[in-house]
Write a structure and sequence with these properties.
There is one protein chain. The protein is mainly α and about 300 residues long. The chain has one domain. Helices cover about 75% and strands about 0% of the residues. It contains 14 helices and no strands. Helix 4 packs across helix 10. It starts with a helix and ends in a 9-residue tail after the last helix. The C terminus is likely disordered. InterPro entries: AA-Vitamin_Transporters, EamA_dom, EmrE-like. Keywords: Membrane, Transmembrane, Transmembrane helix. It is found in: Endomembrane system. It comes from Alteribacillus persepolensis.
């Protein structure tokens, strides 16, 4: 009974986290399109506040020394700074930039090319062998991306090229984020690593676009509501619930259920924002989701075991 209860708790956590993450991207698109929120400002505020809240949660769960210990070793401190800048900040900024220039659905699905990039990296480093399943995975990813971006016609793109550029960079940044975090996560709690990475990335971008440099006189109650959702639900809870679900579910099952993220982004974009999403784009989304399902069920995937 207890085992079933904890499993159900893990399922609920990852489902809510994935939905929050996907819907958070669509809400961000709303802020960019209707309220002209600057990408730099939103990423800065999102990272700083969500990271601070995650560290506060961890501080309530464990002592203060546990949270600051990652900075007491020079090697781990440097690793955390690199992870915060080239991992967390890069993932968040490229993802938001892709949404800003295109839409949340395309940005989210392009980010899901990260597993294929990881496979390619592992092959180049000779850390894994190329299997038939890898070939199928890469083929689905390429076909899905083609259909998603061209809507079946090679004469035109369904979203601007700049959105595709940022979306592909987001996938690459997510691949780096996934691989580079492994040593830190083996030594420190996930909330500590993710929380400090958010604060580090947000602080760095804050030098370029300070969070207080915004015309708050034009902020409406509706804007604040959307901002709170993006920061609390789309960032803090999305990361926290995903991490917590790993306490109850295997990484394979967690990543499988995480496929609800792009589905949530597409559905909310189409239903709430009335954005067009044509037949070939739905087929492209199905291919990319199929690719992630194959990876989730791939028991011998090297990156899954890390």
């Amino acid at each position: 009974m207890i085992k079933g209860h904890t499993k159900n708790k893990g399922l609920l956590l990852v489902i809510i986290g994935a939905v929050f993450w996907g819907v958070g991207g669509t809400v961000s698109q709303k802020l960019f399109q209707d309220y002209s929120i600057h990408v730099n400002w939103l990423v800065t505020v999102r990272l700083l506040l969500a990271g601070t809240l995650l560290l506060a949660v961890q501080c309530m769960r464990k002592d203060y020394f546990h949270i600051t210990s990652v900075w007491k070793n020079k090697k781990t401190a440097v690793q955390l700074i690199i992870f915060g800048l080239l991992g967390m900040l890069a993932v968040q900024y490229t993802y938001m930039a892709s949404i800003h220039h295109g839409n949340a659905a395309v940005a989210t699905l392009l980010q899901y090319l990260a597993p294929v990039m990881i496979i390619v990296y592992l092959l180049l480093r000779k850390l894994t062998i190329f299997t038939k399943q890898d070939l199928t995975t890469v083929a689905l990813a390429l076909l899905g991306t083609f259909l998603l971006l061209t809507n079946g016609s090679i004469s035109e793109l369904s979203v601007p090229f700049i959105s595709i550029f940022w979306g592909i960079l987001s996938g690459a940044a997510l691949a780096f984020y996934t691989l580079y975090a492994i040593p830190l996560l083996k030594e420190f709690d996930s909330l500590v690593v993710v929380g400090w990475a958010m604060v580090t990335g947000g602080a760095a971008l804050g030098f370029i676009h300070p969070p207080w440099q915004a015309d708050f006189s034009h902020f409406t109650a509706e804007m604040y509501m959307y901002l709170i959702f993006v920061i609390i639900c789309g960032t803090m809870f999305a990361f926290w619930f995903y991490i917590e679900s790993l306490q109850y579910l295997s990484p394979k099952k967690t990543s499988l259920i995480g496929n609800l993220e792009p589905l949530a982004a597409v559905l909310t974009m189409v239903i709430w924002l009335n954005e067009p999403f044509d037949l070939f784009q739905w087929l492209g989304m199905a291919c990319i989701l199929g690719m992630t399902l194959l990876l989730a069920f791939h028991k011998k995937a090297s990156y899954e075991n890390n």
